Structure formats: C-alpha cells, structure tokens
Fold:
Amino acid sequence: MEVVSKEEFLINKEKFIDMVKDGAIFIHPTDTIYGIGCIATKGKTVRRVRDVKKRDIMPFSIIIPNIDWIYSKCIVPPFAEEWIKKLPGPYTLIFKLKNREAIANEVNNSWETIGVRIPKHWFSDFVRELGSPVITTSANISGEEFMTSIENLNPEVKAKMDFIIYEGEKEGFPSTIVNLSKAEVEVVSRGRSQPSPERRSISNLIRKIVKK
Structure:
C-alpha cells in the first residue's frame, strides 16, 4: 500500500489508471470528504470494498465520467434538469437506472436506483479519463466516524487499501442527497451547508429515502 500526493498521483496517472482497471481499491479525495473507491463495473472488486466497510446491503454511490452518463444510463424526469445543472458539485443525485448492466450488481445490490456524483474536484478529471464509473463511499467502517485525515483513518481500513491519495485534512461533510427517482424531488439536507452532528456516512440517509 502506498500513500501519494495529488502531484505524485498525476505524474503517475497512467499507472494508477491501469491499477484501477485491474481491480485496485483505494482512498481518494473529493470536494466533500475522503472516499473509498474502485471501478464500478467489476463485481469482485466491489465486494472487496463491501468487506472493508462491513456493509452488505446498502447501495454505494458512484462518481460518473460525465453528464452524458446520466442520460444514457438513467431515467431522467424533467424536474431533474435543474439538479443536473448543479453538477459538478457537492450533490448525490439518485436516479432510476434504465441500463442495469452499466454497473456491477454488487454496487447497488440490483436495486433499481443509483446515486451519482460529479464532485467539483480534480479527481473527477481522473474518472473522466478512466472512462468508467467509480464507486465512492466514506472512508470508514459502516457506522463509525469517517476519515478526515490520515491520522484518524481506521488502521483496519488503511491496511486493505492498494493506494491512498492524500491531500491533507478535510473538514467537509457528506454530499447533499437528492432523490430524483420518484414522482417529485426529495432533498435530504445533510450536505456541506447542513452537516450531520454525528459525522456519519451517508448510508443511513439513503436508507431513509429508500424506505419511504
């Protein structure tokens, strides 16, 4: 396992593209918090992340290569347009999938919806060059506090990463979740502007949406 800076990562970008395509799991920065990631099209690799997170059921969100991915892979209702225009940004937009083969079943456990992100962050450029969606989930074991710096990263999580991209301490909060998969917009205001006092992962927020 290696820890690299943004500069080191970009200098060796082709190496890391190959590693991700081959099934590496890693920690990456975003415009909100650090996330655990892997390519979203390899079920075996996604299962590795589930093992690290100890998260068997709840779906993962993904960082997508570009806006076109939403229109080609998801059902986009007219009222979703204003939210899509906010990307890139600190939002997770939940859509119904129209092409379930676009991601491995292990990403969303074959649910009909998927949460998509395009962070306003240089890491989104890497995903665009990769050309495939990447899962993103808070860097922690489910239910524990999420990573804000390398010093408070759970050693058990750290030991199972293939590499970590580190750019210093992040005091951000999980993205705001916007459910666009139903008859009307449902906003979960737990983003940067209204942080969760418990500083937990977004899985509990998604659970509330799905149960409604």
